[in-house]
Amino acid sequence: MSAKADRRKFLKYIGAGLVTATMAGAGYCVYSKQPGYAPAQTATATIPKGWESATTYLRNNPPVISEIEVKPKYINPTTETTVRFTHSSYDPDDDTLSTKWLIDGEDVSHEPEYSTKLPEGDHSVVLKVSDGKSEATRSTTVTVDSDQIYPAKPLRVKYRGVNYCVGKPMAPEFPDYPTPNTDQIDEELDNIHNDLGCNAIIIAAGADSEDDLIECARMALQKEFFDRIYIEPHYWQYSIDETVEKLARFAPKVKSLREASQVIHFMVGHEFSLETSGIVPGDNWFERVDYCVKNPDWADRVWATFPRMFKDIIAACKENYGYKISYAAISYAEIDAVPWSDPLFESVGIDVGLVPAVGATEEVFFKQLSELKTRLGKPVIVPDFACLTYTGAEQWGGAVLPNAWENGPYDEEAQAKYIKSYCDVLSRARIEGCFYWQYKNDFDKAEGLFNGTKRKKGFYMYKSYQRTT
Questions:
Q1: Which of 10, 18, 106, 274 matches a 20 to 30 Å C-alpha distance to 426?
Q2: 221, 261 in Cβ contact below 8 A?
Q3: How do beta strands 98-103 and 106-109 pair?
Q4: pLDDT (tens digit per residue) in 64-101
Q5: Residue 50 buriedness (CB in 10 A; 0-12 / 13-18 / 19+)
Q6: Spatial CA neighbour of 87 closest among 126, 141, 144
Q7: What are the structural domains, with CATH classification, of the chain?
Q8: pTM above 0.90?
């Protein structure tokens, strides 16, 4: 018999064996349940030497694509960002795999990893992985933002940055701030410096996330591109004594980083009148804001508590920290009650300031900043300025009114207008530093510079102000 005939005979034989085996298995499933029937035996085919590859091919398992990995992952890339594509794939039979990347239908690479820049818009990304016999396919979509939409202009401050929140509970009264993981922090720190153009940062977290706060500050320090890093714990809803006690326990952790680099600074608090329990009446932040709006005497309550509170904070910091500090005060009710003249304070921190709806215009704000620099004789920083994202919000700026998220339709222009007005005043006043509140959050009308992973117009407006010392 010829080799050709022998091969045909074998294929017929092996095929019959596979069918017999299948039917025998089916028979077992049916008949083994009936009384008196013995389980059927599976037919076995003897494979002639040299024909093993035929059965290997018949029972090949296709490749498996576990994931398409796109970097950046937590924010959209821009037209100037190099996007990196990688994948996690394997073959159950340990066959060698080949890769094919298609972007918007075009075959762009056959390498396991591929990097490129993409134009603005949504892009279809398809990955095909083959073992030479079978092919697996997986797809995703990458959205690319524009790199710049406003012309560059000077911002004459030394330190320009954002507030970056890394833990919760940050603010129990507000929608949740997501806690970023280590990979996300690494990517977003790069974005804050490289894309947004900041040379400084305030890293903030709540009482339950102090370790996250220190770790993020350590990561920011290792980047070696921030000229100043403020560490700011928020002790929402704690009493005056509890707040002082927590600051004293936390200070040595900041000290260990400060001793590694003078870039590290300690922001010991933020708007105690609204965040700390027992200074202004109210069970939460919104109730205290409401009290302050309706009762001008709230400043008297601040004066009744701040001197003792800051005396204890200064003593605790001198004992447990030993380096200069700062504080983020809200309006003049707090400003004049903080003992800035103490040598421990390295700068004066003032929040808000520009609220046209109540007469705090650009000119009024400029005069306030200029007066502070002269009167207190120390560098002035704005640790917290912001604007919500709804029509008309530029008249209120960072003021979070009751039901603020329902006030007016979503409007990125309002946020961008406010940032422009604010930065124009800061540039004229030439203060020491400014920090936008906040870099990112996940609810549309809030202050964050992102809507999900997409940059808002406020992001581009703040980016357009290039730092000029």
A1: 274
A2: yes
A3: antiparallel
A4: 999 999 999 999 999 999 999 999 999 999 999 999 99
A5: exposed
A6: 126
A7: 3-58 (no CATH), 64-144 (2.60.40.10), 153-467 (3.20.20.80)
A8: no
